[in-house]
Amino acid sequence: MDKVVATAGAAVADVPDGASLAVGGFGLSGVPNVLIEALHERGTGGLSVVSNNCGAMESGLAVLLAAGRIARVTGSYIGANKEFARQYLAGELEVEMIPQGTLAERLRAGGAGIPAFYTPAGVGTQVADGGLPWRYDGSGGVALASPPKEVREFDGTEYVLERGIRTDFALVRAARGDRHGNLVFAKSSRNFNPLAAMAGRVTIAEVEELVEPGGIDPDAVHLPGIFVQRVVALTAEQAARKPVERRTVST
């Protein structure tokens, strides 16, 4: 089945207001910027986003965030995104913070059909006990807090129950992909992209290099095409645009 869609705009045309999105990327690495920009151009809003972070340097999800298109974020890192922090503290944005490894496993579990799992991460903290501020009231008070989660003991160790994540759509970026949706990710862009792709009911991948079926060694495939419904081939210019979050030079 040829899953290639002509443009990014056509690929995201049926993403409605209020949709939930799993979005790949780690920092600025492996972020599906072209698909995100296509959503921005469509004016899609009220989105619930699941992603490690919410963009930075006016790139990635920061584009949608600054435009007020995101209603809720499930992630593990706010970092240096001042607008993210401002919206959260002002009560404009609902935020569920999750330990990074737990977030990764919740996405993987959702994609694998596992409804929930137990993990020791977060036991004895507000992650398990509840009370984390999901939304502030704009005056320093908490308008909505996280509920407590089930904690159970196995072999003398306590574990907290975490639910798998499934989203309406997933947006990911791959270094290479074929027309059947088989994907290969480059280096650190592999951190969250395969997991986000698994979690989406409809997964859209932008690929830097599109090859014909058979052009990727089966042993080299990081994500099989069964998880991908649409593929968008980037132009050379789009593929080359890779902003650097922090530049470090030697003295």
Please specify the SSE layout and strand pairing.
Elements: H1 8-11, E1 20-23, H2 33-42, E2 47-50, H3 62-66, E3 70-75, H4 82-89, E4 94-97, H5 100-111, E5 116-119, H6 126-129, E6 133-136, E7 142-145, E8 151-154, E9 157-163, E10 167-178, E11 183-184, H7 193-199, E12 200-211, E13 230-233, H8 236-240
Parallel strand pairs: 1-2, 1-10, 2-3, 3-4, 10-12, 12-13
Antiparallel strand pairs: 5-9, 6-7, 8-9, 10-11
Pfam families: CoA_trans
GO molecular function, one term: transferase activity
Keywords: Transferase
Number of helices: 8
The geometry reads as globular
Structural class: alpha/beta
Main beta-sheet strand count, sense and barrel state: 8 strands, mixed
Tell me the fraction of residues in β-strands, as a range: 25-35%
**What is the ordering of alpha helices and beta strands?**
HEHEHEHEHEHEEEEEEHEEH
Mean pLDDT across all amino acids: 94
Give the uncertain stretches in residue-range form. Answer: none
- Secondary structure: number of strands: 13
Computed CA radius of gyration, to the nearest angstrom: 18 Å
Portion of residues in helices? 10-25%
Keywords: Transferase
Protein name: CoA transferase subunit A
Pfam families: CoA_trans
GO molecular function, one term: transferase activity
